[in-house]
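Continuing the batch. This is chain 6 of the set; chains 1 through 5 are on the previous pages. Same settings as before, nothing changed between runs. Recording input and output for traceability.
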Amino acid sequence: MELHQLRSFVAIAEECNLTRASERLYLSQSAVSSHLKALEDELGVSLFARTAKGMLLTGEGMTLLPRARNLLDAANGMLQEARALSGELRGSLRIGFNTDPAFLRASALSTRMRRAHPDIELNLMQSMTSNVLEQVARGSMDGGFIFGRAENPALTVVPLASVILHVVGPAKWKKLLADADLTAVAGMPWIWVPPDCPLYNLLDEQFEEHGLTLKHSIKTDHEDIMRALVIAGEGLCVLRQPEATELERLGHVTIWHGMQMSIPLAFVHKASRNDDPLITAVTRTVQALWRENGETD
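Output for chain 6:
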């Protein structure tokens, strides 16, 4: 049993598609397919069923997948420990950003890591909280930023800040929002996001406590589009306090002062990698950046 066979097994399981798995591993489809066949032959079981929906795990495959991930984690941990013992810290990290990279201090993170650990390559990936949690848990992302809380015991959560949120609407709605109560605001059009966004789940909960349901008028998964739609007069959304305040100062939006919320911001990685020197390096750098700039932004 070879590590490259296990990597192909895990990639196919997570992508449910041989083509996407090969692209992710930077290998040809024939190479990934041969890895899988060799592994199945050695194990004596079929790991996947080929269906119209893609490569789906068999019962045996579902049972063995966690073991494959654990073996890969252990091998990676041994490699990093050996490098740490030799004084060499080298490798690559895939870090997920769940919101504006400037807010998450991406530039400062890159600069600090490059100066302190020049042989660590950072791959910064734009994502959403739900995707960061999923990809970090399955190992296709090494760490990432999230809003809210992570209930998965397989993840280590590093608290960073409490982020204040405001409800904002178009600038031309200033008088309307000044006089609006919860019921009136709930009935206004909202620029919404895909499911599982902690910010909007929190917002829903605030209104549901009063028996109110928000009107989802338009949906988008991109923050720039959301802001543009609010500025254009299409509806309400939720923004972080500094961003909301600055846009209101510029005359682009108006803040509704009937509600203020806050949500935790954290950095997460797999708990099995708590002692991984690469993870330790990036986590300490992230923590230092947020301590220096204050707990809230």
